[in-house]
């Protein structure tokens, strides 16, 4: 991963790397048959668990306006839920095969998973509606949605981001590329109607799936790719390489 450190920090990072390597070897030697995922050495292998937690932590602040829109008992919330109901979800669906999923992104050192999850779900429904698969700008949400409750590379929340797209629209990744750092909003790009893939008002609503409600999740996935949050705090996830990840930790984060 071409990680380089100065002489003062090098020994410290090597000790963390050694611990990450030992954790990987221990998991392989243990032959834990009930694990459906694999751990190995990743670009996070020289990070402390606390540093990794800071990177992946989700800011759960939802702006008051968004909270009113999506409240489960609000008029808008009830209307959206009824509209999005699927009475008989199919037994299986693969939106990758349907051409509605863009390539996996890497957020690098910017804690903007909320923006990536939002853009990728929006890319999915955009393709389903228009038959055009276009990568939307993660960087626009990182730079421009602070007034909607997000905090750039320090975290954010999907519903804040959907609200931002609803009111401000969004341009393509090629028009406003990702740089893995928060910066000043480039309004000359975001307000250019010729660059907007979605104009203000094109996104008309969204619905949060109730945590642990498999039926609602199936109904959502039956219609489009969904955005999701998972617990990335356990040390194993820092070294996740593939497979179906299941968190055993009892943290609420």
From TrEMBL:
Belongs to the peptidase C1 family. One of its GO terms (biological process) is proteolysis. PROSITE patterns: THIOL_PROTEASE_CYS. Residues 89-253 form the Peptidase C1A papain C-terminal domain. The keyword Lipid metabolism does not apply. SUPFAM superfamilies: Cysteine proteinases. Coiled coil: none annotated. GO terms for molecular function: cysteine-type peptidase activity. It comes from the Eukaryota. Keywords: Zymogen. PANTHER family: CYSTEINE PROTEASE FAMILY C1-RELATED. This is Thiolproteinase SmTP1, putative. It comes from Perkinsus marinus (strain ATCC 50983 / TXsc). InterPro entries: Papain-like_cys_pep_sf, Pept_cys_AS, Peptidase_C1A, Peptidase_C1A_C, Peptidase_C1A_papain-like.
């Amino acid at each position: 991963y071409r990680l380089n450190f100065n002489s003062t920090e090098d020994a410290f990072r090597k000790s963390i790397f050694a611990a990450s390597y030992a954790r990987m070897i221990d998991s392989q030697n243990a032959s834990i048959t009930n694990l459906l995922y694999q751990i190995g050495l990743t670009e996070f292998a020289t990070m402390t668990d606390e540093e990794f937690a800071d990177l992946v932590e989700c800011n759960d602040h939802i702006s008051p306006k968004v909270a009113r829109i999506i409240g489960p008992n609000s008029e808008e919330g009830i209307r959206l839920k009824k509209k999005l109901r699927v009475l008989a979800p199919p037994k299986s669906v693969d939106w990758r095969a349907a051409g509605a999923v863009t390539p996996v992104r890497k957020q690098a050192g910017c804690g903007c998973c909320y923006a990536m999850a939002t853009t990728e779900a929006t890319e999915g429904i955009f393709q389903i509606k228009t038959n055009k698969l276009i990568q939307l700008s993660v960087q626009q949400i990182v730079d421009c949605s602070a007034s909607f409750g997000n905090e750039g590379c320090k975290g954010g929340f999907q519903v804040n981001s959907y609200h931002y797209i609803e009111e401000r629209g969004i341009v393509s990744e090629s028009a406003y590329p990702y740089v893995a750092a928060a910066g000043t909003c480039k309004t000359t790009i975001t307000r250019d109607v010729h660059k907007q893939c979605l104009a203000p008002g094109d996104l008309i609503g969204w619905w949060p799936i109730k945590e642990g409600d498999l039926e609602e999740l199936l109904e959502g996935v039956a219609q489009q790719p969904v955005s999701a949050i998972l617990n990335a705090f356990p040390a194993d996830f820092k070294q996740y390489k593939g497979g179906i990840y299941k968190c055993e930790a009892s943290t609420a984060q």
